[in-house]
Design a protein that fits this description.
2 copies of one chain form a homodimer. Chain A has 242 residues and is mainly α. Chain A has a single domain (3-239), classed as Up-down Bundle (Methane Monooxygenase Hydroxylase, Chain G, domain 1), CATH 1.20.58.220. Helices cover 85% and strands 0% of the residues of chain A. Chain A contains 7 helices and no strands. In chain A, helix 1 (3-45) runs antiparallel to helix 4 (123-149) and helix 4 runs parallel beside helix 6. The first copy, chain A, starts with a helix and ends with a helix. Chain A binds chain B through residues 59, 62-63, 65-66, 69-70, 72-73, 76-77, 80-83, 86-87, 90, 93-94, 97, 173, 177, 180-182, 184-185, 187-188, 191, 198, 222, 224-225, and chain B through 59, 62-63, 65-66, 69-70, 72-73, 76-77, 80-83, 86-87, 90, 93-94, 97, 173, 177, 180-181, 184-185, 187-188, 191, 198, 222, 224-225.
Chain lengths: 242, 242
């Protein structure tokens, strides 16, 4: 085999390895998506039988995290990736940490919801929670899509969506505080709902974190600590007029 | 310069670069430690004038995170680090993400504490909070020390210490729920304290995460998803009888 062919061969193998890693991340994302969907059904629809599924999926998520991280280290050690590929690998490594913790939050929601809150979740809060759950699930779906297609625009949409989640979160917290004031007897039960809502809000934050990693990977600028509006202006400038 | 000397020269420069990164992480850790100390003084000693310091330090922490991450990518791209050094660099990258979020939690504590909780924090809760704050500060100090000296034993101590923090957390939550039940008027104010306590508990979790990254880096096994007791048994077996 000539050097040129050898070079091509190595580079093809390298791209295949990157693709494998990427598809493993998406697989992991799929498992976490299902964990979240089930946790929300436990919380909002009282389908407590699903809590066990959420807890059991944890082992899969954890072993995928370890496996992907090992794979990333191996690839970097074996190949000598250029800066762009390196950035992809660093992004993968940070993304799977976030995904694993999204799974943890889903677990917290599923655990908290099982006991002690019977009859305490009123229709108004349930409605708002359903809506908040839909928003967060959509964020997770979009951010995985943004990762799969390395799509900055979708990643930006996720960052924007987090604002809606935060607004909804504040509304629900207010409702729950009102409920506690009116019915002091159920405070411990309402607090369980409160923690679940908090976990949901944090879950949205973690989707936003992943989006920021993706934007950083693509644009090579660090948006984690820049105002969102400035980032949007920058992206629009780069894309030119529509 | 002979090839041998060139090789030595490159390897010395590489080690110097790693040392620089390591010392930057410790510098970042120092800033975060001060953020936490100040946030706790805002919360427990009502020194609300310090809240501004906590918020201002955020900019320093953020820019250190970006700087260190860039530096890590540059080092990996320029050198061809062996697996061990690569693991160090991946650990650095994950550690600074945790440190930055510890700073965020400190900011949350400092922000929440400023308003609305006057006269609501009773002596018992204040005493417990002071103790919990001391425990978490000690965790952060120890984990930075473990990082500086790549010391697995200290990292394990941190993981153990998190159990104490969790216990204290549960105790305080119980006290606050009791208080809300007895004095429904102050529920919104007590909830502010509740969120601060939650942030403190999460902060302990993040110190534990860093410890796990360090243990993983040194022992090359993934302890994030193994039971602590098994890890301890493993470490003791490796160290032999004392």
């Amino acid at each position: 085999m000539s050097d040129l062919h050898l070079g091509e061969h190595i580079s093809r193998r390298f791209n295949e390895e990157l693709e494998e890693v990427r598809s493993k991340v998406l697989h992991m994302g799929g498992v976490v998506e299902e964990q979240l969907a089930n946790a929300l059904r436990v919380l909002v629809n009282d389908e407590s039988n699903l809590a066990r599924d959420v807890l059991e999926a944890d082992a899969i998520v954890n072993s995928l995290e370890v496996e992907i991280d090992e794979e990333c280290t191996r690839i970097v050690a074996r190949r000598q990736p250029a800066a762009t590929d390196l950035r992809l690998i660093m992004t993968v490594s940070k993304t799977i940490t976030e995904l694993e913790r999204i799974g943890d939050e889903a677990k917290r929601i599923a655990k908290m919801s099982r006991k002690d809150m019977d009859g305490v979740l009123n229709d108004e809060v349930r409605g708002e929670l359903t809506h908040m759950g839909d928003l967060v699930r959509e964020m997770l779906r979009l951010v995985l899509d943004a990762f799969a297609r390395t799509d900055v625009e979708t990643a930006v949409t996720v960052v924007k969506a987090d604002r809606k989640v935060d607004k909804k979160y504040k509304k629900i917290v207010k409702l729950l505080i009102d409920q506690m004031s009116k019915e002091p007897d159920v405070i411990p039960a309402v607090m369980k709902i409160m923690w679940a809502v908090r976990s949901l809000e944090r879950l949205g934050d973690r989707c936003q974190n992943i989006s920021e990693h993706i934007i950083y990977m693509v644009l090579g600028m660090d948006v984690r600590h820049i105002k969102l509006d400035d980032v949007l202006a920058d992206i629009e400038a780069q894309m030119g007029p529509e």
